From TrEMBL:
Signal peptide as annotated in the record: 1-18
Name of the protein this chain belongs to: Uncharacterized protein
Iron recorded as keyword: no
UniProt keyword Signal present: yes
Entry keywords, A to Z: Signal
Limits of the DUF7591 domain: 237-335
Domain called CUB-like: residue spans: 18-132
Length: 338
């Protein structure tokens, strides 16, 4: 009993001596060296313990022409504690349970805000770098869509179209979306244009992003992932709502529900797997039109009547871009991928 009490006392004393406190800081560009907090931490070590009842913020400044990469190792100790990240465009992210998956931020700053009751693990690293130079791809988009492998390598591209542009992202691995964080979208011809968002945030919206302007896209760091970006002329897709990605794991069975489309709803597949439609529910007076490519008359593969399509199942479809467009009404799909 005495030994147990002694062990507990020593443990608490060790934890108390190992904790630290934080204070508000403004962090400027430190190229070529990264900024570590605390200064004694690095990625090969476990995060140190922040003492109880700390409240502090870190303002990390990002100069024009640069981006910042943030790596965090955090774990709050109770449900009332929080570690939050806020970028310059007021996007709020929960950083309370971070496992060193990188975040990326454009000009001009981002904030890390800590409010903890119980002790919490907390450490981070920031690198700054200039944007990649040059443009690897410049393309006009019309009736033929463009599919780009967006996160495998460092990549820069400009796109333009007469009626504007539509973007949809398709992650390779639905359980690992973090690679999309390194891709930025700007309106204009380069990174000096209006910043729209990261591809990570655009994907989480689960709808197409549309602009009337030219766009510049940059993936600032090779992530080795095979995430895909579908670029289309907006005039062919902007009236379709809802209009969503069919992001399903390879060789899986996938169920999708789309609410009433006015005037139409759309489900979009990008990839190299055969999609077998096992079941569908659509209004009897609606039709399903399947397009291989952007939904234009020249890309129409086949149209199915709502009164008879179920008697024709299963139906197989196979193309790099397949679009399922229903002209009104709630729709449910059940697909098998192979």
């Amino acid at each position: 009993m005495v030994l147990s009490f002694l062990f507990l006392t020593l443990t608490l004393a060790t934890l108390s001596s190992a904790t630290y406190n934080c204070k508000n800081e403004i962090v400027n560009l430190q190229n070529p060296n990264p900024y570590y907090y605390p200064a004694t931490w690095n990625e090969q070590r476990p995060a140190p313990v922040l003492g109880a009842n700390n409240s502090c913020s870190f303002t990390i400044l990002v100069p024009q022409g640069h981006y910042a990469k943030l790596v965090m190792s955090t774990e709050v100790g109770d449900k009332n504690s929080s570690i939050r990240i806020i970028d310059a465009y007021n996007n709020l992210y929960d950083g309370s349970h971070e496992m060193k998956n990188p975040w990326y931020f454009p000009y001009n700053r981002f904030l890390i805000i800590v409010n903890n009751g119980a002790p919490a693990k907390f450490a981070f690293k920031v690198n700054w770098a200039q944007y990649p130079s040059g443009v690897q791809l410049s393309a006009a988009i019309s009736k033929k869509p463009r599919v780009v492998s967006i996160t495998k390598n460092v990549f820069t591209a400009q796109f333009h179209a007469v009626t504007g542009l539509s973007l949809l992202a398709f992650p390779e691995d639905l359980s690992y979306l973090y690679a999309l964080r390194s891709t930025f979208v700007f309106e204009g011809d380069d990174f000096n244009g209006h910043y729209v968002d990261s591809l990570y945030n655009l994907y989480l919206a689960h709808k197409q992003w549309i602009t009337k302007k030219n766009i510049y896209i940059v993936n600032v760091e090779a992530r080795g992932a095979l995430d895909q970006l579908l670029v289309q002329e907006a005039g062919y897709t902007q009236a379709i709502d809802p209009y969503q990605q069919m992001s399903c794991n390879p060789s899986s069975t996938c169920y999708r529900y789309l609410g009433t489309g006015n005037p139409a709803s759309g489900l979009v597949y990008v990839g190299n797997q055969t999609q077998t439609l096992l079941d569908i529910s659509i209004p009897w007076n609606s039709t399903l039109s399947v397009y291989y490519g952007t939904p234009t008359s020249s890309n129409l593969y086949k149209t199915y009547d709502g009164t008879s399509i179920r008697s024709m199942l299963p139906l197989k479809f196979s193309a790099e871009v397949v679009q399922y467009i229903v002209n009104g009404g709630v729709t449910t799909y059940n697909f098998k991928f192979s």
